[in-house]
């Protein structure tokens, strides 16, 4: 059972009541923690109620629905959107809040919970709710992908091209629901013995040939790893990490270096801070862990695009 404490909101709930008179909670009933731990939604709303925060509850029922729910909530006067779900649901809601001024608050209930971990809210709901009370509204830049086919989309944490996006396609959803992040590792192991597909990416006038590109706004990767160590939501650029080569053993070395937090010192790894990266030949693509397709695309930073609740101490 989740440990929902009394949230420590006593010093601030009057302020929250004054600030947020029409809060909304969007939740994904299929998110990992919600499915694995029945009663999660009820315990979350009870914890919020003890803090005298009583949001209108909206459930998603299909992929992309959180975007529609967030937009509708803004049209109906919502002044705060809380999201209980994984990074995919948070991504969808953010797409409905970009360029509005209505703040987004994050409650982790997914598999990796990258954004919540990055912000220091953690992966456990009770402490995250407690820390949320100390958050303040801050405007942040956001990533945007413009694929060769399909509509542009925004993303909060990261865009990936090549190997990690292909791993997303190989991850079994049922197995992921049962074992969590282990499902990604299992899918990644399927690449051993297979050549990594390469593609071209153009950054600040220079073209790189690589098997994996990470366009990151956060240090955290996958919930508990760190690749883009210089990235920050407070900056208005990506930390672009380019992994060269097609030999799978080389990528095994990259993974070991990642676990040791030394990957950016590896030969064949290049790091560039920039606002734009163009994938000029087809590659598998993902944003915030959601697959986009096999095609060319452009990653670009959009400054001052979203209001996010950020706890004190986030660098």
Descriptive overview:
The chain has 315 residues and is an alpha+beta fold. The protein folds into 2 domains: 13-134, Probable inorganic polyphosphate/atp-NAD kinase, domain 1 (Rossmann fold, 3-Layer(aba) Sandwich); 143-303, Tumour Suppressor Smad4. Helices cover 30% and strands 33% of the residues. The protein has helices at 13-19, 32-36, 40-50, 65-75, 87-97, 114-119, 125-132, 163-170, 173-179, 182-189, 248-259; strands spanning 23-27, 56-59, 80-85, 104-108, 136-147, 153-155, 158-162, 199-203, 206-210, 212-216, 220-221, 225-226, 238-243, 269-274, 276-287, 290-310. The strands form 3 sheets. Strands 5, 6, 7, 8, 9, 10, 13, 14, 15 and 16 form a 10-stranded antiparallel β-sheet that branches. Strands 2-1-3-4 form a 4-stranded parallel β-sheet. Helix 4 packs parallel to helix 5 (87-97).
């Amino acid at each position: 059972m989740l440990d929902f404490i009394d949230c420590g909101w006593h010093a601030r709930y009057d302020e929250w009541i004054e600030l947020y008179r029409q809060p909304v909670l969007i939740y994904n009933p299929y998110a990992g923690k919600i499915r694995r731990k029945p009663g999660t939604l009820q315990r979350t709303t009870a914890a919020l109620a003890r803090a005298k925060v009583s949001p209108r509850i909206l459930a998603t029922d299909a992929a992309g629905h959180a975007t529609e729910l967030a937009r509708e909530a803004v049209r109906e006067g919502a002044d705060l959107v809380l999201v209980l779900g994984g990074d995919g649901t948070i991504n969808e809601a953010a797409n409905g809040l970009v360029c509005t001024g209505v703040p987004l608050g994050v409650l982790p209930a997914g598999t990796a919970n990258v954004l919540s971990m990055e912000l220091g809210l953690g992966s456990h709901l009770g402490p995250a709710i407690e820390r949320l009370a100390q958050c303040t509204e801050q405007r942040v830049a956001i990533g945007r992908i413009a694929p060769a086919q399909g509509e542009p989309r925004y993303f909060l944490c990261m865009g990936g091209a090549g190997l990690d996006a292909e791993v997303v396609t190989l991850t079994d959803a049922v197995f992921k629901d049962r074992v969590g992040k282990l499902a990604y590792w299992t899918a990644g192991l399927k690449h051993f013995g297979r050549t990594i597909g390469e593609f071209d990416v153009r950054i600040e006038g220079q073209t790189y040939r690589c098997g994996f590109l990470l366009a990151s706004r956060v240090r955290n990767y996958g919930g508990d790893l760190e690749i883009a160590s210089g990235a920050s939501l407070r900056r208005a650029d990506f930390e672009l990490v380019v992994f060269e080569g097609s030999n799978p053993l080389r990528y095994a070395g990259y993974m070991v270096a990642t676990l040791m937090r030394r990957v950016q010192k590896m030969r064949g790894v290049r790091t560039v801070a920039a606002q734009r990266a163009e994938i000029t030949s087809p590659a598998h693509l993902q944003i915030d862990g959601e697959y986009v397709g096999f095609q060319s695309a452009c990653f670009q930073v959009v400054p001052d695009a979203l209001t996010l609740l950020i706890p004190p101490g986030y660098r």
